[in-house]
Amino acid sequence: MRRRAETGLPGRLARSAAATEGAGPRTDEVADWLAERVRAHRFRVDRIPFAALDGWSFAPDSGNLVHRSGRFFSVEGVGVTVDHGPFPPWQQPIIHQPEVGILGILAKEIDGVLHFLMQAKMEPGNRNLLQLSPTVQATRSNYTKVHKGADVRYLEYFLGPRRGRVLADVLQSEHGSWFLRKANRNVLVETDEDVPPHEDFRWLTLGQIGRLLRLDNLVNMDARTVLAGLPTSSADDRLARALHTDRELLSWITAQRARHEVRVERLPLAEVRGWHRTPTAVERADGRYFRVVAVAVEAGSRETADWTQPLIEPTGRGVTAFLTRRFGGVPHLLVHARVEAGLLDVLELAPTVQYVPENYAHLDPDDRPPFLAEVLAADPRRIRYEAVHSEEGGRFLDAESRYLVVEADPGTPPDPPEGYLWVTPGQLGALAQHARYVNVQARTLLACINAGAVGPL
């Protein structure tokens, strides 16, 4: 018989978060190491016309963009009807990737401090190509070698017979605006084995990762989402005060899901209204939102050295932010119960603001998203955190968001508009240890809080 919870883990994680240097490279050397790995391999990404795609084609019956293997993913269409907001029913392309991938980070205690094995991984959609990534970041098609490439390093710690202790393991959603019901397994495993790092991997403390999260486009999205699920709150923390009890918070989420009617219908890509296909893109005539494009990739450090694929390219940089303020001396974050077409459970908790401002500039001020103007006009003295981070570089091209944590006006009322609620970081972190409660953008900011990248709230 064992305890149901490992009570010492939050303390061990806190010690790792406080360790801004570790047994691996110095924190200020990591960016240089990444640059050295870029020089050590041949990396290149070129835009190409759809006709130059190898193994990909538009299906003659549906117009869907599919791979000849039937694996990896496809670009299809959806029609969406929601019961609120300024938008009438709309149609759009979307990525359909039903297989579940693995995002895994291997942990090991070195000199009494937890370290995490991080990878210098190239993704074709990253603006700077190579970023700090999980130990394993692979789709099922990748690790079952549909591409007939090399084995995924360290995969044995996350599949097959257990070779360590599970610290976190949860199925999490991906971007709900661009993926249709996509999920990945976010898992963190601790080992006692001696694991010499390959030249593309390094052991780092949580505190080192936190300092690196303050830099633009250095820690990738997949690493951020895994770190968001760390159990950083102890039992005593969960008894702390908040505006709403945990039971009230869960009831509020359930009520929000029940009140929204969202209908999502899969459509052939060729029938999606308002979008047209050119030799190099599937896009809207007004240029808003995003386009589907194609690239040719060379990557000397990947399981396959060269390939071609489609990517989604957003047409503007996003702004993603939590408003924060204290109630009774306790920090709270303002979450938004955000409906997205690709989510399995209608909605998930999102940051206060999660938008590309240019996509809403044509709307009347009253129809623009709440709190967006406040975040865009925030006094720099109220900004507790700010960095530009890439979104998922394996499927999105140059997709970046300006991530912020902004101190709200002290007069902001405790009762926000419908669809918004004040919760503590601990409450949000507890929900992130379970599937489909906290969206991927909110998990990025939660990872920044967990790793100490955000200043005092």
UniProtKB/TrEMBL annotation:
This is NDP-hexose 2,3-dehydratase family protein. InterPro entries: EvaA-like, EvaA-like_sf. Residues 28-230, 247-449 form the dTDP-4-dehydro-6-deoxy-alpha-D-glucopyranose 2,3-dehydratase domain. Residues 1-26 are annotated as: Disordered. Pfam families: Hexose_dehydrat (PF03559). It comes from the Bacteria.
